Amino acid sequence: METSVKSSARLTEQDLSNLFEKTISVYSSMFDSSEIRKSRKSHQQKWNHTTEDPEVYRYYSESASRDYALSVIDDYVGSASDTRIIKSQYCRTLLECQARGFGRGNFGADYGGAVGLYSIGMIALGMEVDLYDANSFALQIALETAVKMFSSVSMTTVSCKANTELIREYDCVVAMDVFEHLHDPVWQLLETHSKLKVGGVLFDGTHFGNTDRHKEHIAADDSRAIQFNEVQGAMFTRADRRWNCPKVLVKVA
After folding, report:
1. pTM of the entire predicted model
2. In whole angstroms, how far apart are CA 6 and each of 1, 2, 107, 128, 168?
3. Domains of the chain (ranges plus CATH)?
4. H/E segment holding residue 128
5. Coil, strand, or helix at residue 140?
6. What percent of the chain is predicted at pLDDT more than 90?
7. Which of 126, 160, 222, 225 could potentially form a cystine with 134 if both were Cys, beta carbons 3.0 to 4.6 Å apart?
């Protein structure tokens, strides 16, 4: 299966919706559907860390590597309502990238991108992409998916640790549901800001709180969450409407 996208092509929302569905179809074709469904329960049963642990990233990389990666795919193929929300965020993010002229010659980072859903989208826009994640199995899935979908793949995978230095400057960074899982999200936010070009964009889908359902999240009233929001507000200009997710944050200096 190949998707060839010319640099001059303008992708519509329907094009991106179709790309989303095709990407999910490739993920699903790699594994038995029952294994994907069971992965979430197995992943949750093995969880015994919180973000208070400086080595929390090791859980994603070692303790349940396969279960974690497949539970991410289950997020995409699970309930219809969840899939609609994820697809809507995906299309909005990539349409915003395109509207800002990001394409061939631009660099994007998919930070904490797991199986590379947004990486695939940025490649379709013509961008060169670095996919960061702690989970080696997820990175392998991402590369295999990209190879199946594109005749030429401009993607590098980078293994994350507790605090991860980004390997180059970027025109945009996508971080969907990532910072709330980190021991030190402020450090990573500052590192992300330092590697964004002036005028570059951080697409931030952080959701602090909801710890009853997600015990791996930082609580909304945790001092780290409060400081994160303060630093983010001081260092970026928000370019989106307040009710949108992800936030569209522009580096101005």
Report:
1. 0.90
2. 17, 13, 17, 14, 25
3. 13-251 (3.40.50.150)
4. strand 128-133
5. helix
6. 61
7. 160
